[in-house]
Structure prediction request, 129 residues.
Amino acid sequence: MPSRKKIDIARSLRQRSTKSEALLWQELRNRKFMNLKFRRQHVIRGFVVDFYCAELKLAIEIDGAIHRHRKLLDELRQDVIEREGVEFVRFSAKEVENDIASVLEKLKIVINYYKNFPPLHGSGEGERG
Prediction:
C-alpha cells in the first residue's frame, strides 16, 4: 500500500498535468481506449508513473524536458518497477502533442502484443524468447 505522502504527491501531479499528459489522458480515460481501465499518476513501489493499466501491468510514461536531466534516475526507477512484472511504454511529450493518433496506434500495437504474449520478467520465468 502506498504511503500517504506518495498518494498526496500523485494527487498533486494529477492536478497539475502537463499538456501532453492531459492530451493522452483524454484518450485513455473512462475506458475509451480498447475498453481498458487506465489510472493516471499511479503509485507503484513508491514511484509514480504517468499512466497505469493494472489488467495488463502496463505503465505509460511521457518523457518531457525534465526527463533529460534525470535519465539515470528514470532508468533505475523503471528497473525497480519492471521487477514487479510491469512493462513500460515511453513516448516523448513532443510525440504526444504533435501526433496523438500515431501514439495511440503504437500503443494499440504494444497492447495487442502483450495480450498475446504476456511479459515474463518479474515472474521468475526469464525473458521472452
In short: The helical segments are 4-15, 19-28, 65-68, 71-82, 93-98, 100-116.
